[in-house]
């Protein structure tokens, strides 16, 4: 989602996003899973390659409304590739179990 939307309800979206990334990076189950273990790498690599491929279309002005549409398309493409083949019910259950097992920092 766009940054402004993400932070408009940051108390909800930020912890969810953080816990998903934490799960994908730290969970032994995610690290061993042939699909889940590649989600973040695929996402960032696709986002980078698509950004490079579309740089000529990207307006330099950060306030140009076309920029938001192009960025949204890039994120969507990266998400589609990163989550291709993911069983979301299985992922959600494992993510929830991992998150419920987290201990607060001391």
Description:
- The structure is a single chain.
- The chain is mainly α and 106 residues long.
- It is 70% helix and 0% strand.
- The longest helix is centred in the last third of the chain and has 18 residues, at 65-82.
- The protein starts with a helix and ends in a 6-residue tail after the last helix.
Classify the secondary structure makeup into a structural class.
Answer: mainly alpha
Number of helices: 6
Share of β-strand residues: under 5%
Q: Give me the count of strands.
A: 0
Order of helices and strands: HHHHHH
Dominant shape: globular
Percent in helix: 55-70%
Please state the average pLDDT score: 92
| Uncertain segments | none
| Sheet having the most strands | none
- Over the alpha carbons, how many angstroms does the gyration radius reach? 16 Å
**Head-to-tail CA distance between termini:** 32 Å
Compact summary:
With 106 residues, this protein is mainly alpha-helical. Helices cover 70% and strands 0% of the residues.
């Amino acid at each position: 989602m766009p940054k402004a939307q993400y932070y408009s309800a940051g108390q909800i979206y930020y912890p969810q996003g953080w816990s998903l990334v934490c799960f994908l990076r730290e969970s032994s189950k995610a690290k061993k899973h042939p699909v889940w273990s590649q989600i973040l790498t695929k996402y960032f690599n696709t986002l980078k390659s698509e950004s490079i491929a579309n740089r000529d279309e990207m307006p330099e002005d950060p306030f140009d409304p076309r920029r938001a549409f192009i960025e949204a398309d890039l994120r969507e493409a990266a998400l589609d590739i990163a989550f291709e083949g993911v069983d979301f019910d299985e992922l959600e259950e494992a993510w929830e179990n991992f998150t419920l097992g987290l201990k607060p920092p001391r």
